[in-house]
Amino acid sequence: MYEIAIRMTRRNHNAFVHLLAALEKQGFDLGEILITKDIRKIMNARPKVVLYSFFTEEIWEVKDEVKVLKEAFNPLLIAGGYHATAMPKHTLNILGFDIAVIGEGEEAVYSLLKTLKRTQFKTGRELLNIIGLAFYLGWKFVFTGFARVEDFWRFPPYPEGLKLIAPIEISRGCPFGCYYCQTPYMKGFRMRHRPIDQIVKYSRRMKDMRYITPNAFAYGSPGAILKLKKLEALLKALQPLRKEGRRLYYGTFPSEVRPEFVLPETLELLIDYADNRRLAIGAQSGDNAMLKTMHRIHKVEHVQRAVEYMLEYGFEPVVDFIVGLPGETEESQKRSIELMKWIMQKGGKVRAHYFMPLPGTPWARCKPSPLSDEMKKFLGRMAAKGKIEGSWGNQIFLSRKLQRLIEEFYEEPMSYTGWINSAC
Ligand code: SF4
User: Fold this and answer.
1) How far is the CA of 261 from the centre of ligand 1 (A)?
2) 2, 16, 376, 385: least buried by Cβ within 10 Å?
3) Which domains does the chain have, with CATH numbers?
4) Is the dihedral of CA 97, 20, 245, 262 positive or negative?
5) Residue 225: count of CB within 10 angstroms of its CB
6) Cα(229)–Cα(234) distance, rounded to whole angstroms?
7) Is the CB of residue 178 below 6 angstroms from any atom belonging to ligand 1?
8) Which residues in 271-354 belong to E strands, given as ranges?
9) Prediction pTM value
10) What are phi and psi of 390, to 5 degrees?
């Protein structure tokens, strides 16, 4: 009989694989945990505790599921992930969770599960000693502090005792602080990296070697500068695994690279040491004023230079844009259209996303700008021809839901840095 269950989904799979590895490393017996993507198995097992991890975009489905579990056998419900960190009161009061884990969960969840086992799964003052939790003590909302795991590589990426794999998180944190992005506020502004030998050791488990990082070319660096030797050392160290038949995908799904890091030197490394001939970069806008407003740091020229280098070296550029950005004018949108056209004419791919206000970011309370007729027509035409990928259509609907959520339930978010400058 299981007392603890993990509600895995396609979207939280990677996060839970890493968390399970951290629990195991700290001595938790994973045999005690029911790990499943099938909610019916949780319903049948009726555990004392169920762990969730989710993004704000998923809260509506999560809320329905929580209601079903509560009515069926009322387990203790624990939430982690971006939404729980940015909106803990909403997570507890509205979604119906009992405990929200705030920040990086590796140590907090371990201490929480150990304590709950000791207290027969009763919550109380014992939880006050665990950093990284929000919950109610009686009627009082308690926040025990933001959980930071600076040296996250103390925990391996995969549990030894389970056959679970996921792309390995090789780097954590990002110094750029783009105003729409949750990463720096959740993971910190300084980039930290797993050591090469650990990455090599665990990459053996993958057939296609893929990695999670905010900027794959910044491996080994505090984040804003290129450390070519460190990047090369990592890629070189993975070559014996390629020789054994594994393929190395670097700077592409599920990660990407910053445009100003796309240089002859970095592309040459990929040609020598990686298998992908597609590379993903974020442009986000074709307007320099807009890039400045959103704190992207790079300019349009960096995007153009990156695309040209990629094509010269035989890579297919995949370039992300966000449309409907706060403060975006018709003129800014025109410039984005021009850049998108230029990329497509050159042979690159464009992926368009609609602006979504995410809790825990400086732009959480900002409204999207309306799309100009020209932008709507352009995106529609290009999508019909299969020239633009991305789901901006569904995201318009989701963005409205997020705006309503934030208007109604806005909370000053818990953050890695302790503060967030609202920028609109
Ligand atoms: S969008 Fe990318 S570069 Fe900007 S803060 Fe997020 S992870 Fe960093």
Assistant:
1) 13
2) 385
3) 4-143 (3.40.50.280), 167-409 (3.20.20.70)
4) positive
5) 11
6) 9
7) yes
8) 278-284, 316-323, 349-354
9) 0.95
10) 110, 160
Ligand 1 center to residue 225 CA distance, Å? 14
Which of 171, 172, 176 for mutating ligand 1's site (highest number of atoms within 8 Å of CB)?
Answer: 176
For residue 421, pLDDT over 90 is answered with no
From the number of C-beta atoms within 10 Å of its C-beta (0-12, 13-18, 19+), residue 104 rates as buried
Distance from the CA of 46 to the center of ligand 1, in angstroms?
40
Burial class (CB in 10 A: 0-12, 13-18, 19+), 240: exposed
Alpha-carbon distance 423 to 195, whole Å? 36
Host H or E run for residue 76: strand 76-80
Ligand 1 atom closest to Cα of residue 177: 5
pLDDT tens, residue by residue, 21-77: 999 999 999 999 999 999 999 999 999 999 999 999 999 999 999 999 999 999 999
Contact (CB, 8 A) for 65 and 20 = no
Measured distance CA(281)–CA(353) in Å, rounded: 13
Q: Does the Cβ of 179 fall within 6 Å of ligand 1?
A: no
Secondary structure of residue 39 in the 3-state scheme = helix
| Residue ranges with strand state E in 218-277 | 247-248
Cβ(174) – ligand 1 distance below 6 Å: yes
H/E stretch holding 140 reads strand 140-143
Cα–Cα distances in angstroms (integers) from residue 161 to residues 88, 200, 282, in the given order? 32, 19, 37
Atom 4 of ligand 1, nearest CA residue: 178
pLDDT per residue as tens digits for the range 112-140: 999 999 999 999 999 999 999 999 999 99
336 close to ligand 1 (CB < 6 Angstrom): no
* Dist. CA 82–CA 60, nearest whole Å: 15
Q: Which helix (H) or strand (E) holds 389?
A: strand 388-389
- Is ligand 1 within 6 A of the CB of residue 177? yes
The bridge status of strand 192-193 relative to strand 171-172 is antiparallel
